[in-house]
Amino acid sequence: MENTDVIIIGGGAAGLMAARTLAKAGKNVVLLEGRNRLGGRIHTLEHGTSLEPAELGAEFIHGDLPITQSLLNEADIKYTHASASMWKYEDGKFIAEGHVIEHWDEFLESIMQLKHDMSIEAFMQQEFSGERYGGLRESVRGYVSGYDNADPKKASAFSIRKEWQNEHEDAQYRVEGGYYTLITYLANEFKQAGGHIYLNAVAKDIDWGQHHVTVSTDIGITYQARQLLIAVPLGILQAEVGLKATLSFDPPVDYYINALKSLGFGAVIKVLLEFDEAFWYSDETRKMTGADLEDMGFLFSNEAIPVWWTQMPVHRPLLTGWLGGPPAAARVHTSDEDVLIEALGSISNIFKIDIAKLKEKLLTWNVINWTVDPFSRGSYSYDTIETAEARKILSHPIGDTLFFAGEYLYEGTAMGTVEAALTSGLRAAEMLLDYE
C-alpha cells in the first residue's frame, strides 16, 4: 500500500497537467494509468515505412489556444500551420470550398432568434421540416455528427449556435513530432518534481471519506491519499459499473454521476491509410476529377467514411478518414477489417480507383474505434440541453476530497480539444490546492 497526498486516476492531458501543477506546488502525487501508455485519447504512432508520426487520436490545434501553445513554447516543441483548402465530393463532382448550403442564411437567422433551448434535431424539425429543407437538415446533421461527434437528437441547439457564433477562420496547426511530444514533456516535468507514474494500473474501487481515499486496482494493489483527482474520460464515468476501467465509489456519489450522465459524449472512428504514393495529387486524378487538388486539406462526401484529410502542407501519401456521431456509434460491433473495407470503398468511389488496385497501393493501415476502446468509451464531449445545470453541480468537489478533471468540464469555445483538457486539469489542480 502506498500513501501519498493526492492520487490522480488518468494519464491523459488533463491528468498530466494537473499532476505537474500539483507536484511543482510541493504535493506528493501518484498517477495511475490503466493503459500501457500515457496520453489517453492522444495516441501518436510512428507510422508505416516513412516512420513519420501519425495521430490516431487528437491531431490539430484548432486556432490560437493559450495553454496548448504556451506549453509547446515552454517545451520548445514546434508546431506548424496545417491550414489548407476544403473540398466536397457530391454527385460525382469535386466542389471547392465556398460552396454555400441552400437556406443556410435562413437557418442561421432562425437559430439566433431561438429563445428556449432544445436539441438541434428538434429545432430543425420545428422550423425546417418538409422536403424543401431536406438538404439543409442533412448538412446540419452531418456537421453536428462529424465535427462535434454528437447525436443531433441530444445536442443542444444553444451550444451549436454558440459554436457557430465563435467560429472564425483561425489557423490550424499540427505539433511537429506529434502530440505525444507534449505528453512526454508533461510526464517528465511531473517525474522531475517528484511524482510517480504507474502504467497498467486499472483503478477499480474507491473507498472515501472526508480527506481520506483508498483506491484499489483490478489486481488488488491499493493506494491511499488525502485527496483524489479523477481525470478519466467522460465515457468511463457514464458506463455501467463492472465493465473494464469503470469506477465504483463507496459511499456512492450518485448525485454527481447522474449529472455526468446528462452530458453528451460522442462517438468516432478514425482510419489511417498510407499508400505508396499520394495519388490524389497526380495528373491522372487531375484529369479524372477536372479539379486541381494540389492544396486539398479536407474532403467531405456522402460516402460510408464521409470525411477525409491529407497532411497538407506536406504532400505525404497518408489519408485520414473520420466517421463521427450516430453512424460511428452504430458500428460498435464492426471489426477493424470491415471498417477498412468501407474506407477503401469510399476512396474507390471518390477517386474512381478499383479497390483491388487500392489494396495493392496500400502500405499500412490503422483503424481506431474510440467508442469501443475500454479506456475511453467514446471520443469527446458535447453539450446537451441538461449540460448547463449539470455543470453547476460538477464545478465543485465532493467533500473537499474527490475532484474531477477532463475536457467535458471545460466551458470555453475550444470544446472537445486538448486545450479543453489542459485547461480543466490546471483548474482542478488549482482548486485542489485551495482546499488544503
Quick one: how many beta strands? 22
What helical percentage do the residues reach?
25-40%
Biggest β-sheet: count, sense, barrel? 8 strands, mixed
CA-based shape: globular
User: What percent of residues are in strands?
Assistant: 15-25%
Question: Structural class of the secondary structure composition?
Answer: alpha/beta
- The separation of the N and C termini measures 23 Å
Rg over CA atoms, rounded to whole Å, is 22 Å
Low-confidence stretches: none
Summarize model confidence as the mean pLDDT.
94
Q: How many alpha or pi helices? A: 15
Can you walk me through this structure?
This protein has 436 residues and is α/β, with parallel strands linked by helices. It is 33% helix and 24% strand. The strands form five sheets. Strands 1, 2, 10, 11, 12, 13, 14 and 22 form an eight-stranded mixed beta sheet that branches. Strands 8-7-17-18-19-16-20 form a seven-stranded mixed beta sheet. The radius of gyration is 22 Å and the shape is globular. The model has no long low-confidence stretch (mean pLDDT 94).
